[in-house]
Amino acid sequence: MTTATARTRPNPAALHLVERLAANGVQTVFGIPGVHNQAIYDALLDQPSIRSVVTRHEQGAAFMADGYARASGDVGVCCLITGPGVSNASTALAQAYSDSSPVVALVTSYLANPSQQGRRLHDMRDQTTFLRSFLKAAITVGSVEEVAAAVDEAMTLARGARPGPVAVQVPLELLDVRAPVALPGPAPQPPQRSIDTRAALDMLRAGRSPVVVVGGGSADAAAEVEELVDALRAPVVSTTAGKGIVPVSHPLSVGPWLRAEGVRRLIAAADPLILLGTEWSTTDVGEGPFPLPPNVISVNLEPDPRFAGSVQLEADVRTALGALLPELTEREDVQVEETVARLRGEARSEPRRWHEAAPYVEALRRALAPDAIVTNDMNSLSYAAAELFEAYAPRTFLAPKGFGTLGFALPAAIGAGLAMPDRQVAALVGDGGLMFTAEELVTAVRHRLTLPVVVWNNASYGAIRFTRTAAYGRSVDDDLTNPDFVAFAKACGADGMRVREPGELEEALGAALAAPRPTVIDVAVEGVG
Known about the structure:
About 35% of the residues lie in helices and about 20% in strands.
């Protein structure tokens, strides 16, 4: 593809790759230089518009790219070597796929040679098949001339219908090959699809008790979602990924209480139920049956076979609501605020296994700014925060919901902090999960990030202990022998402090948010879930 602005230069493929990243607006690349991708890192030296963030593990690089993408809404990019670099990052990339996070992984490979597969340095038997098992797509470059188009395609796919991670594989034999390549102009934009809103409008106009459920796919349509909620006078419930899209302070916001009994009854009686940018995941609604009403409107980028008999608008939420809202008449004299307030109160009072963590979540909320970004892991403090932490803006509560991996919180917070340097960022992690990616604390130190890392230290895999005890009446092998997290933090060049009470946590967070370096806050709650 050529344009009037095309240039022909005999540059190596690595430089074409980096130039095309810049043309697509990429500003940060996370990764580790290795013998198989050193040509890419050399090319980055000639591209001052792209910052290279060197991490301590490829899993951390991919988690950082994911956190960068979730916090900013832009594509996160990581750079991986062949074989172990790819396999090290696979858990984090699978998490990005599960949660529809747009990430592009630049991956080196070998030119196909079946007789040599798995026998060369950093090689594996079938890297492409491996990648395709947990990515949205894996694009393999066959020549220098294909590099720019491959980057464009990866960026488009990562952002496109059901966003997700995409790999661009460049054989290392091509990286230093020089060829006169016609560089294309600006990256192409995907065409806009027209949508038929007639059935949805008919259902909305006839409905008597609408309820909105908002998911992470609505993050870029917060104003339109709030306008819809106000026009319909509809209670709005959020998934964990949808927290903050409608501020918790809104009088019609029920909050993220999909598992509460009263909210389940509200949804079952909805007429219609309007699902905006959510996959209706079991991690939000549970594994058991969740009764849905007859009339459902689902707005998502892809059709969902579970709602085959419902009205499905295949579009991004902003586009769909942009078409619907001008045709709607506001419902007047409909009072649901008391119902919403009652449901919120009932939901908060229902027993939860994380009730010991609730005062610490409240302390966290008091200490942080309304638009602060909080990253989470899989631990009792994060489970409590998923429902109790009050979110006031989109993209401020980041959690590894679908794949449910440990180790997400710290590197994702680093990615979020580098993406949004003017915002407060805090990480919530358990003592077990921290040790999956603890080495990235030195990455945060290197970049002088103000970053509280709140460690729920119960000296155990507490969530596993709870579920095993509930299922079998006993649990073994769940106790942990932990390092001194305060000493570990200081050894890495960070600050460290230990607290035991919610009030102490609030005070420690205030100090951490004023420090020009990360701070590990060890919340010592041994014996608590």
